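Good morning,

Both structures are done.
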Amino acid sequence: EFESKIRIAPTKLSVVTGYPGHGKSHLFQQVWFNIARNYGIKVAIFSAETRLKPFLRRNFRQFYWGQLEHTLTPQELREADQWIEHHLILMDVGDEVPNMRWLVDSIEIATQRYGCRAALIDPFNKIEEDYDPREMTETRWIGKMLDLLIQMSRGLSIHTQIIAHPAKPDAAFKRSAPDLYSISGSAHRSNRVDQGFSVHREKI
């Protein structure tokens, strides 16, 4: 279904949004797994809301075999882990608060040292806003950071994707899918990025 709808290219910046619990992170982890498997590329992943292990590893083990982790044999787990080790570079800031300098440096290392062709930042909202509010607005800071990611993507010839939460919706707005203008902080994410995706599940 998604093969003809999601076209991701090097040097581009994309953004994904969606309300918490609607599956945006899980869906695009699956998308990047498929890309890495089908094209043999490596992907750098920063995940601030789930521990890199065991949660990300569990997801990718399940993507690899197409079945739940608890049903896998020790040999199947080892094979999946070997694939994960070879194709995914997990960027871990430890107990520190991640900022843009650390993020860009980590992506450059993943690209130049390990040959990554893409970077997934999940979510962008967790990156420290290291600016002086007396000299710069949040909107201007976000615009500058997006420009930095665009320049980085072009310079390294990689695709960069950020996942960003929308501003907290009230009950009325949550019934409809958010767009890029719904993202917390700034409309720059709509007018600066190359591609935008909204993940939304209607309640039945």
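Second structure follows.
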Amino acid sequence: LIALAVITMTWGNLAAIRQKDAKRMLAYSSISQVGYLLLGVLAWGSGGYTAVIYYTIVYMVMNLGAFLVVSRLAHEGRDPRLEDFQGLAKRSPFLAFIFLLSVFSLAGIPPLAGFAGKWILFQSALNAGFPLLVIWAMINSTVSLYYYLTFVKEAYMKEPVPGKNVLTLRLSERIAGFLILLAILFLGIYPTPLYQLVEAAVRKL
């Protein structure tokens, strides 16, 4: 399991660095996230299981935000690429902000939900006696910032491609985006209620 954790988080991040396709980038990112989850599995016991379930819930929220943006940028069945993010902050500031918070949370930037989730995972692994593995996971989290920032830079620091119109969001998309942002911020600033709920469920098992 230690070897699998090291391989998945490392290979997932290194493969994601090379991607210009947004879906592929997020797919390889998810492989690295599995490596982080294995830290909780290694921790064993109720603390490790609680950490795994908690981070899985948080990960679903973060990924929903990222894929909401990616699916909105998809055109006629074509996966959005790096250039499709150019000037997104001007075409749709709300979508750009959702993507920013989602990927920063995936990277574990405080005070977002991903930071709280990784903190709980890493703490459970430390308590179980895996300090070197936690250090390697923290290095990989830092590496992941590179490919996330590559897409964020296109969205915020580049001008829109000529011919790309302003994106108009449906009401359902606005509501979904708002709820995702709220969850990412709330679970990062105040993770206790969800953590206690998960912990109580694990103890009953």
